[in-house]
Write a structure and sequence with these properties.
Layout lengths: L14 H9 L3 E6 L36 H13 L6 E6 L9 H12 L4 E8 L6 H13 L1 E9 L3 H6 L6 H13 L3 E8 L6 H12 L5 E6 L2 E2 L4 H6 L8 H14 L5 E4 L9 E3 L6 H14 L12
Parallel strand pairs: 1-2, 2-3, 3-4, 4-5, 5-6, 6-8
Antiparallel strand pairs: 7-9
Helix pairs in contact: 7-9, 9-10
Length: about 300
């Protein structure tokens, strides 16, 4: 007999469902730029950064770093209010590495974000190698007074691929940081990317299987974007970069969903890229078409999150 497993009409446990369960109403993320840098850009590890990362440190849709957190939040909230008149907010530190700074600076920025009206949670995107004991102590404090999740950029479990993309750390660093965050009760969301240079479908799904058996709260699956003014462009110009097609990508995504346990929240199934910066793949600009295709394939084939997940 066919099973009909759904989360608010979806075949996967998406972020909207999770937030409605937790807060009882619509909750929106407001992306902020705290003015941070990154050890993979400032010369500490490298000056190149991850080869896919945009000039804005993957914060292309966040606020203006020249503005205060309060102004960024207020401006973004006004834009959202044009579509949605009410709701609560997550202060999301997105651009660059948001634990890469002095403790005093981090605290001031996080505090300012939490002071904004209707903020119910704090989300912090960072690198696994930027979580010192002092930073972890600070995050633990915030975890006691608000809902907090920390996003870690893993991208792939393949250390060879990690070298190609200039990630700047080994898988063991991710594992250690994940354990430290979870030992303090802090929820973790993991970033992965499909379509990285040289990776096969098996490589991508191996990363999903690995993450599926870790103690994490959520996952973001991005599609590799080739953006102007990134080091990735040189690989493209040499003919060393192959992009996933839309059909291929959505097929792999559907398989990935079935391998994730039903309690992991899926924050993203594709990424956003500014149209003026995107070189390839152009089909990714039609985000809702991609998401609708995923929904269609899941329903048509009676696939759902957790279907093929097996505990070790």
């Amino acid at each position: 007999m066919e099973q009909n497993i759904e989360w608010n009409g979806k075949k996967y446990y998406n972020l909207n469902s999770f937030l409605r369960e937790k807060f009882g109403q619509k909750v929106f993320k407001i992306s902020l730029d705290g003015g941070f840098s990154c050890p993979n850009r400032d010369g500490t590890i490298s000056s190149l950064g991850c080869i896919f990362c945009s000039e804005r440190g993957s914060g292309d849709f966040s606020g203006n770093r020249k503005d205060s957190i309060t102004k960024q939040f207020t401006d973004m909230k006004k834009m959202m209010n044009k579509k949605w008149k009410d709701g609560k907010y997550i202060a999301y530190f997105q651009a660059y590495t948001n634990t890469y700074g002095k403790i005093k600076t981090l605290k001031a920025l996080y505090d300012e974000a939490l002071m904004q009206d209707d903020v119910v949670a704090l989300a912090i995107a960072t690198r696994p190698d930027c979580l010192s004991d002092q930073v972890l102590d600070l995050l633990e404090e915030y975890n006691k007074k608000t809902y907090l999740w920390v996003e870690l950029g893993l991208q792939t479990i393949n250390d060879n691929t990690a070298e190609i993309i200039n990630r700047g750390y080994k898988l063991k660093v991710f594992e250690d940081s994940l354990d430290k965050l979870r030992s303090r009760g802090i929820d973790v969301v993991v970033h992965t990317i499909f379509g990285l240079p040289g990776e096969s479908k098996e490589d991508m799904l191996n990363t999903i299987d690995y993450v599926a058996h870790k103690d994490i709260k959520g996952i973001k699956i991005h599609l590799l974007h080739l953006l102007k003014n990134t080091p990735l462009v040189s690989l493209h110009e040499k003919g060393e970069l192959t992009f996933l097609g839309q059909q291929e990508y959505t097929d792999i995504i559907c398989e990935a969903i079935t391998r994730l346990p039903p309690e992991i929240v899926i924050h993203r199934l594709t990424g956003d890229a500014p149209s003026e910066l995107l070189i390839e793949p152009k089909w990714s600009l039609k985000k809702w078409e991609v998401l609708n295709e995923i929904d269609y394939k899941l329903s048509k084939n009676n696939l759902y999150q957790g279907l093929y997940f097996h505990t070790n």
